[in-house]
Design goal:
This protein has 9 helices and 9 strands. The chain has helices spanning 8-15, 18-22, 47-65, 77-88, 102-108, 126-133, 137-143, 148-162, 209-229, and strands at residues 2-3, 26-31, 36-41, 69-71, 92-96, 117-122, 166-172, 187-194, 198-204. Helix 5 (102-108) links the parallel strand 5 and strand 6 (117-122).
């Protein structure tokens, strides 16, 4: 079972007495930079019995942490989102700064993504943000490139330009340098824009540039998944 948005200790606390859930079976927590895999091992006299045990454990786990589970086995988050958008015939665009196109790369790795992914804009400089995404110059002067306001305008700008149903954006300080007391390394704002809603959320990930890019991209996609499914943002 694949989860994202909560660490191993948080999931363990939410599950409570794991032994009550799994009985004599085994449950392993396998954390990574983008989430935690829950590997369930069961034994049975035959495949039917083992499958029944597995289903029972999975249902119990879902009852505790369902909001954080996005798939099973090899269901990557971008694939899950792609299926939802395809089924609903909805479209997506992306505006990236600190993630440098990593989100777009993940999205287009899914076969058939051309059916729902219209495109993305990767901009670092403020001048290009203004020219390509219609970010207000006043917004950048007052709040800076790494801010709630800029993240929202990035998402809103790319969605309007590409005329998509949804858009997500990232702007932050990936590191390892460039941070300040007010805006430390690892600070990332992720913006969301839909036809009826727009907002941004901030996260503080750490000092490793590569890890920050991975975590920012995963969190942006998870925000989109939750919006698509109407799941509360619990980060």
């Amino acid at each position: 079972m694949l989860t994202t948005g909560a660490g191993e200790s948080t999931l363990n606390e939410m599950l409570g007495d794991v032994r009550e859930i799994i009985g004599e079976s085994k449950l392993a927590f396998l954390p990574s930079q983008v989430g935690v895999r829950l590997r369930i091992n069961v034994e049975g006299k035959n495949e039917e019995e083992a499958s029944a045990k597995l289903e029972n454990i999975e249902n119990k786990i879902r009852s505790k942490i369902k909001d954080f589970i996005y798939g099973v086995n090899d269901e990557e988050l971008e694939k899950v989102i792609g299926k939802i958008l395809t089924d609903r015939k909805q479209t997506l665009s992306v505006a990236e700064s600190c993630t440098g196109g990593f989100i777009s790369s993940k999205i287009v790795s899914v076969p058939g993504s051309s059916g729902y992914y219209i495109g993305g804009v990767c901009v670092y400089s403020n001048i290009e943000k203004i020219k390509l995404l219609n970010i207000k110059e006043d917004t950048l002067k007052k709040h800076g490139a790494v801010s709630r306001e800029t993240a929202i305008e990035m998402a809103e700008g790319v969605r309007e330009i590409m005329n998509t149903d949804f858009a997500i954006s990232t702007t932050g300080i990936a590191g390892p340098t460039g941070g300040t007391a007010d805006k430390p390394v690892g600070l990332v704002w992720i913006g969301f824009s839909g036809r009826k809603k727009k907002y941004a959320m901030s996260f503080l990930f750490g000092s490793n540039r590569e890890i920050n890019i991975q975590r920012s991209s995963q969190r942006a996609l998870e925000i989109l998944r939750r919006e698509l499914l109407g799941i509360e943002m619990k980060f």
